[in-house]
Amino acid sequence: MNAPVPTPIYRLVHVDTLPTLLARDALHSPNHQPNDNLHYRTIHNVNVQANRRVKLVKCGPQGSVHDYVPFYFGPLSVMLLNLKTGRVEGYDEGQEPIIYLTTTAQAIVADGCQFVFTDGHGLATFTEWYDDLSDLDQVDWGLVGERYWSDKPEDNDRQRRKQAEFLVWQFCHLSLISEIGVLNTNAQARVMETLDQFPRSHHPQVNVRRQWYYC
To answer: Which one from 11, 24, 52, 160 is the annotated catalytic residue?
Structure first.
């Protein structure tokens, strides 16, 4: 299956982080967070993040995974399921506070951002890394957007391929985000209220995307 063009990419954040992103007018990688004391509500597994901090990237601008802002190629990620089912230590709020920030790989490139992407989970041994959009067909487009992705006896690599990533070097401007996807109208109202507090900031469309959640 060929890569869709334009190629959508999705980032998950907690809604409490949205004011910080609006104030900064950008999304920053973990290693390049501004020293502004603004609140960032983390939703990640601590052990996974520790490994990403030291995982080296061997193409593109290189560095470590924590030098990049990560996006997925599809919704319904393993990460979101873990958040829903209480498998992330310290998180018990369910899916409603989790929002999607979406853009396209082509928009990232057009803005001059450096990037890399993978054909699977960034920490997996057999994952391949790329820095040219001509290689997007290496991503399993028949799987990255699927709701059901568990490994099977005839294919025990499904979960790794489901977690293919597009990673943006250091930061990307908030103006590149074309849509904020939310679980329901309550979350939509909360996001709209936050956007209204930043009238001079970029305001993406805010759409209820229930199909992007485990419901």
So the answer is: 52
For residues 144, 7, 72, 135, the Cα torsion angle rounded to the nearest 10 degrees is 80
Per residue in 39-95, pLDDT (tens digit) is 999 998 888 999 999 999 999 999 999 999 999 999 999 999 999 999 999 999 999
How long is the chain?
215
| pLDDT averaged over every residue in the chain | 97
184 to 10, 66, 108, 109, 205: CA distances (angstroms): 18, 31, 28, 31, 14
pLDDT for res 1: 86
The CA-based dihedral angle spanning residues 123, 124, 127, 131, taken in that order and rounded to the nearest 10 degrees: 0
- The DSSP 8-state label assigned to residue 57 in this structure reads P
Kindly give the pairing relationship between strand 179-182 and strand 205-208. Answer: parallel
Catalytic residue (one of 24, 160, 161, 165): 165
Report the half-sphere exposure of 103 (CA within 13 A, side-chain side).
23
| 165 flagged as catalytic | yes
Burial of 39 (0-12, 13-18, 19+ CB in 10 A): exposed
Report how far residue 151's alpha carbon sits from residue 168's, in angstroms, rounded to the nearest whole number.
28
What phi-psi label fits residue 95: left (phi over 0), alpha (psi between -120 and 50 degrees) or beta?
alpha
Would residue 179 show up in a list of annotated catalytic residues for this protein? no
